[in-house]
Write a structure and sequence with these properties.
By secondary structure, the protein is mainly beta. Helices cover 2% and strands 62% of the residues.
């Protein structure tokens, strides 16, 4: 299977016939000097007449600023809805993120397990985000020349990711910060239901200009699924052919709190090479999606990563699980 990725893929794609066609971009970041991080995501679902907008900020004082909206979206002409806007300045090199709106201020981000109650009982504050993203690594991914997912299990027709640096300003209420950060971004298009995977684990990490990784584990209901990712060492993007993860869990709702992972690839001579990393979840917010009686939980963990050689990095550990019998289905991994 070959992947196609061209500069024009940074822009909007033609809307497909699928009722659940989605085109989305996502950006995360973390500034270790400030202890400030977060992510933003905007998805267009024009065939459903709506979008999905998420802003999540881990603030230096331990609170989380959060906002989610489903704005009306009837076209796929731009990423610009509910106060959030993404602009491509130079494909693969420079993108800008802007948000003008409000965020819910959560002393306890686990309160989002019940979003209705959380929005009713926590204050809001005005929020602006203005970040300029600069590409660090080569691009990973693209659009395959043949279908890679079974009907009903599609999660994206095309998808790519890139390690990035981000700089700019963030303001929440009376507080403002000048941000110098690292992170990861992605772009997807095609049919998407959050209920398609049985569960997945998506680890993103950045250690500065010259090292970072992404690990992906997607499980099917009736099969092994996929394991992969990449490691960027400042000179080469290593495509991982294997990725294994072990998690420890906390609380009655079983949220992940620590991670041990191994990514494997081959060097230029075809010899095996691997990277081992452990992760400590510093703060976690659970998000929820429901469709046709099914409940999907997406746990977003701000995570500190430690490589086997002692280097420290930061990023996110995103755990998606279908919830069956009140429990996430992926507790074994």
């Amino acid at each position: 299977m070959r992947l196609r990725l061209e500069p024009h893929d940074e822009y909007m794609h033609d809307v497909g016939p699928e009722p659940n066609f989605n085109e989305s971009m996502y950006f995360n970041f973390y500034d270790p000097a400030l202890g400030l991080g977060g992510f933003v995501r905007l998805g267009n679902r024009p065939n459903e007449g709506k979008g999905e907008m998420t802003v999540c900020l881990w603030l230096p004082d331990g609170r989380v600023g959060f906002m989610f909206q489903r704005p009306e979206v009837h076209t796929n002409e731009a990423f610009n809805a509910a106060g959030l806007r993404f602009d491509v300045v130079t494909p693969f090199e420079r993108l800008d993120v802007r948000y003008d709106g409000t965020v819910l201020l959560l002393d306890d981000p686990l309160a989002m397990a019940d979003p209705r109650a959380a929005f009713a009982s926590n204050p809001t504050a005005p929020c602006t985000i203005s970040l300029q993203y600069r590409g660090l690594s080569p691009m990973f991914g693209g659009e395959p020349d043949e279908a890679s997912e079974r009907p009903g299990e599609e999660f994206a027709k095309g998808h790519y990711e890139q390690l990035v640096a981000a700089s700019g300003t963030i303001a929440v209420g009376d507080d403002s910060w000048s941000v110098t950060a690292y992170g990861l971004r992605d772009h997807s298009w095609g049919p998407r239901y959050w209920q398609a995977p049985w569960y997945y684990r998506w680890l993103t990490a950045n250690f500065g200009e010259e090292f970072g990784f992404m690990g992906s584990r997607i499980a099917r209901r009736d099969g092994e699924g996929t394991r992969g990712g990449f490691v960027w060492d400042g000179e080469r993007l290593h495509l991982c052919n294997d990725f294994h993860i072990q998690s420890t869990w906390t609380g009655a709702d079983r949220y992940h709190e620590s991670i041990a992972a191994t990514l494997r690839a081959a060097d230029e001579d075809g010899k095996p090479i691997e990277w081992r990393v452990t992760g400590e979840v510093l703060s976690l917010i659970p998000l929820r999606n429901r469709r046709d009686g099914l409940v999907t939980r997406i746990s977003e963990g701000l995570t500190r990563w430690t490589l086997a050689d002692g280097r420290i990095g930061y990023g996110l550990s995103e755990y998606l699980d279908q919830i069956v019998g009140g429990m996430p289905v992926g507790l074994g991994e």
